[in-house]
Structure formats: C-alpha cells, structure tokens
Amino acid sequence: MAGRRARRSVDRRETTEEVGGGIARLVPDQDREGSWELLLDGAPQSHVDLADPTRLVFEYQRRLGHVIDLLAPAGRPVRVLHLGGGALTLARYVAVTRPRSTQQVAEPDTELTALVRRELPLPDGARVRVRAQDARAVLARVGEGWADLVITDVFADARTPAHCTSVEFLDEVRQVLAPGGRYAVNCTDGPPLAHLRGQAATLLARFAEVCLLIEPAVLRGRRFGNGVLCAADHPLPTRDLGHRAAGDPFPARLLTGRDLTDFTAGAAPVTDATARPSPPPPEGAFG
After folding, report:
1. CA angle 189, 58, 11 (to 5 degrees)
2. CA distance 75 to 68
3. pLDDT for 198-246, tens place per residue?
4. What is the secondary structure of the chain as a DSSP string?
5. Which of 74, 243, 266, 269 is 20 to 30 A away from residue 211, measured at CA?
6. Over the stretch 78-124, which tens digit does the pLDDT of each residue have?
7. For the stretch 248-263, what's the b/e string if a residue is b when 16 or more beta carbons lie within 10 angstroms of its beta carbon?
8. φ, ψ for residue 37 (rounded to 5)?
9. pTM strictly above 0.90
10. Could you give the C-alpha distances from 63 to 33, 41, 60, 188, 248, in angstroms and in order?
C-alpha cells in the first residue's frame, strides 16, 4: 500500500473494474503521458510510469528501489521474489535496471493481475512469473536458497494480513533466501506505532542485521505512514541506504543498531499465535 506522493491535478478519467480484492481503478496522470495510479477500494496501491519504469513515485517504493540498487553491482541480474503484486511496479524496476533478472510474484488476485497485464504491459524482455497464490503458499513452492531478495508488500483491505507478520513467516522467507540474500518489507502504521515496533522486534529475532527507513513525521507519531524494514545475516549497506533515503523528495531517517533496538521499546516478536493485521488507515488518509 502506498505512502505519500507529490500531488498533481489530474483528469479523473479512469479504468474501473471489479477484481478479487474489490474495486480496482487505474487513474491516468494527465500531466505525464503513460503514468498511472492503481487504487483498490480507494486506497492507493501502486504507481506505474510506462514511459520510464525506473521512476518510482511513492515514497516507500523509492526506498525499496534503493534496496534493489544496493543489492549487487549496477546492472547485475538478480533473483527476486515479490510477495504482493499490485501493478508490478518494483518488478518493472528490477527488469529495467537489472536486465536478465528472474522474478516471481505472489499475487492471488487473478482478476487484478489480468487487468494490470492488459492495461499496463510489462517491459519487453521482463522475466516475471506471477503465481496466483497466497504469499506463504508461494514461499512453500520456491526452491530453497533461490532468492537474492524477498520483498513483502502484502495488503488486503489496506492492511497487512496477520499471517505475513510472524516469526514463522520469516522462517519460511529465510528458507528461500540465498546465502548473502536480503529481505525487505513495507509496513504501515500510525501512532503509537505498536505494529511497526512489533515488526522490528520480529525481524531482529530472526536476522543478524536489521534497519528501518522511516519519515520523521511518522517516526514521531504525527501521522499514519510507511516504514521500510530491511534485514540480512550479513552487514547491510546502511550508510548508502541512509544517504539515498535522506535525499528523497520526502526524506527518511535510518534506524539501526541501538537506535532500532530502542525504537522497539521492548516489543515482543510476533508469532502465528499472537499475530494481528496491521492497523487500518485512519479515515481520510487517502483524501
């Protein structure tokens, strides 16, 4: 689910279809030809620029783009598993910035995938396989050690499902990560950030290195928003991640080490037995 983006005045002409997850709307940006926003039941899900798939508009997608850029030397093909499909924005980004990369996407909403493929075709040569299954079902099918990067961006009714937030879920993620692989997740939360603190504690319980990219206003509990957590069992490129995120249109802070541990405020790791969906966005969050 999307965070903030720069707003433009647009003609509200759109494509609207009922899909498995609700009412999908593809809204064109009349100020930029080939640029579209996907909304599900009014909640922004993805932004796609067909003319330039490297252009990431939503703040959290830009931060995940930084993770992708720093995964390996520029242009080197990688294997990426996307848990959550939407409009396949990040799969497009990988396909263009790292040609010959192999990608799999878990997206159970077949009607949504059909709409996206029809109206927002993937770049030529993109090696992207969309599996019409839930995230954990796909994790069970992907080969052990297959993925250089796993990205979780799973939302249903604008909330991350509980079963994608636990240590057991992370154990399944770890099975598919290659040696030296990395994990990244988009979380949404608002004050008092109990969900995000719990997710940070959960990743810290399963990975040796964890960092959080978050906008200062969200960190201070001033508004609902996104936090991107990145994790690995080896040192993360935190210096470069921090510099890139600080230079974004909506700058983010990077928390790691003691700062991240202090942020968790003693939150316990989440298990399948204690997991809850992420909190719903407040009324008017997408107005």
Report:
1. 115
2. 11
3. 999 999 999 999 999 999 999 999 999 999 999 999 999 999 999 999 9
4. --------------EEEEETTEEEEEEE-TTSTTEEEEEETTEEEEEEESS-TT---SHHHHHHHHHHHTSSSTT---EEEEE--TT-HHHHHHHHHSTT-EEEEE---HHHHHHHHHHSPPPTT-EEEEE-S-HHHHHHHSPTT-EEEEEE---BTTB--GGGSSHHHHHHHHHHEEEEEEEEEEEEE-TT-HHHHHHHHHHHTT-SEEEEEE-HHHHTTSS-EEEEEEEESS---HHHHHHHHHTSSS--EEEEHHHHHHHHTTPPPP-TTT--PPPPPPTTTT-
5. 74
6. 999 999 999 999 999 999 999 999 999 999 999 999 999 999 999 99
7. bebebebbbeeebeeb
8. -120, 135
9. yes
10. 24, 25, 5, 14, 9
Find where tokens 């991350």 sit. 160
